[in-house]
Structures are given as structure tokens and as C-alpha cells.
Prior knowledge:
Strand content: 25-35%
Number of helices: 9
Largest sheet: 8 strands, mixed
Amino acid sequence: MSDFLIIGGGVIGMMTALQLADAGQQVTLVERGTCGKEASWAGGGIVSPLYPWRYAPPISQLSRWSEGAYPTLALRLLEETGIDPEYRQKGLLYLNVDDEERALSWARQMGKPLVRVGADFVQQKESDVAIAHENALWMPTLGSIRNPRLGQALRARLLAMPTVTLREQCEVYGFVKREDAVTGVNTSQGALLAARVVVCGGAWTARLLATLGVRVPVRPVKGQMIAYQAPPGLVQRVVLKDGRYVIPRGDGLLLVGSTLEEAGFDKTTDEEALASLKHSAERIVPALKECPVAYHWAGLRPGSPEGLPFIGALPGMPNVFINAGHYRNGLVLAPASTHLLADQLLNREPLIDPAPFWPTPERLEPSGG
Length: 369
């Protein structure tokens, strides 16, 4: 029997397993498919909320801690696995921001370098980005990570750790209970027992916990993205305009995202979204009109009220924990949110106040709602 059983092999589940294994715990991680292949693979990899000043202060606290953790994590995984998560810290250019004063006030309060710049500055940094006379904002410290490779590196590291058991292609059907206490899960590979269970099921979290009679307001929100194969160096930095972004990779791949769609668990792509994403991308970087779209895909974000994740023990179930509901910021918040949960699991001093994230009855849906 493991000390901990984690349901869900996205970056949240894998980083939770890594932190617990680093602390000497026996961990079993259960994933219904292949680790790192759902929302963790489908996102863009910006290591910040898109417009961080529009989120509640607790999210800013988590984001700030995670941003500082990613460079070290990327270097660690490269050394341990030989897989480079490609952390890049070249900054972000915000174009056409309609709440600049709010953004600048937030930056002053947080001690973040965010400044107003003009078209000349933007052209100096990114000569192929279209900007006329409007102002822009510049955050030089922002980084991005190549999330599919981050997932590959985390998976490879966990496979090499003797205290971690990775069970892929293993679907959870329900929970094992003994005398009203949860003692494990029933899966397609049989019953698995553990002292404590951690649910990191992303968009599928509500389905999992419904089998315990717990209702959690986490829902799937589809996001479609595309990627151009562009000349390496066409764009060097993340550029964000009107809620759409372009994210460069070192080999010239240029990601563009994303849509926000309430479509249940549907992950199909469509021509309307493709045209909309192309239009946004080519308004930002007109040279992309001459580049082919190499990929078009969709993923499911775990939407939650105000994007505030649920992190902690479920009410009345002291050995069942949740870390889910990060909405658009799962990758952004993963190092901090998993550290915060590990603090609670291991009775350590928490890195920040965990109370805003607890899955209290007030935050969970009522059983008859």
C-alpha cells in the first residue's frame, strides 16, 4: 500500500508525485491515458496568467512563486532526464491593453517590472510585430516553457524514481471505502490502496468526485490552438493582443491561442476557430500570412469559479485531497499549488496562506444544487 495515491497524470499530478517522492514518500500515480497528454500538453506554456492584474490576490501569490521556481525546475529535469523543457525568459509584450492603469498599479504593488512603452520600442524588440501609434506594456521577466517537453521530462523522472509507481492506461471507476473511510480506488487494473488519495483530475475532477457524492464546480472549457511553422527567430518573445497570443519556440514553431468554448468534453477542432486564430495571429505578425499552419488541436481546461483552484482536504474526508480547478493557469500555478498541497500533506509550514484555496462547503456546490 502506498503512502499516497494520485489520480491524474497532468503537470499537477506529476509535480505532486515528484514533491512527495522528493520527501521520501511512497507514491502511486494513476492516469487513464498517458501522462502529460491532456490539458498539460495542449496549452501554450506561458509562465504567467495572461492578464495577471485581473485575478484575485491569492492567484498572484501562487503565480509569483511558480514563476521563480520554473528556471530551477527546468534545469533540474534537463540534468536528470536529458529532456529539455525549453524554459525561455525573453519577456512579454502586451498590445492594446484597455486597463493599463490597473495593470501598472498591480505591478507596483507586486514589485513586478511592467512599463508602458511606445511603438518604437516594440519595433526594436520585435520588428515583425504590427503596431502603429498605440502604446504597449512590457514585462521583461516573463518566461515560457515548452509544455509537451515538460510533461515528457516529468514522466521520465518519475519513472526513474524507486518510490514512485506509475500506472498509465488505468482508468479510475470509483473509490474503495471501508467503514466510511476512503482507502483507495477501483480501477481498470484492479483495486489500489493507499493511506491518502489526491485527486488531480483536471477537467474530469467533478466526474471522479461525484462517485463519492461530492459536487465540485469544475467543468471542461475547450480551447483550440494552432501552430505555424515559421522561420526561427521571426518572433522572439510572447506577444499578447486582445486576449490572443503568439508564443515562439526555439525551432520556429509559433503557437497561437486560444478559444474559450463551453462544449462539454468535446475536443474536436473546426474551421471557424482555425480562421479566427489565423486572423488574430496575422494581425499581430503579418508575415505569418506566408507561413503554413502546421498543427491545429484542442484541449479541455478545468474551469472553476473565478479561476481559483481547490487545494486541500475534502470536508469530512481527511484523507482525500484535491488539487484541481486551475482553469487557464494549470501550468502557470503548478509548482506553487503542488508545493502548497505537499505542505499540507506533510504537515510543513505552508509557503503562502492555504485558506483561500481550501475546498470548503461554501466553495463546493451543495448536494441538492
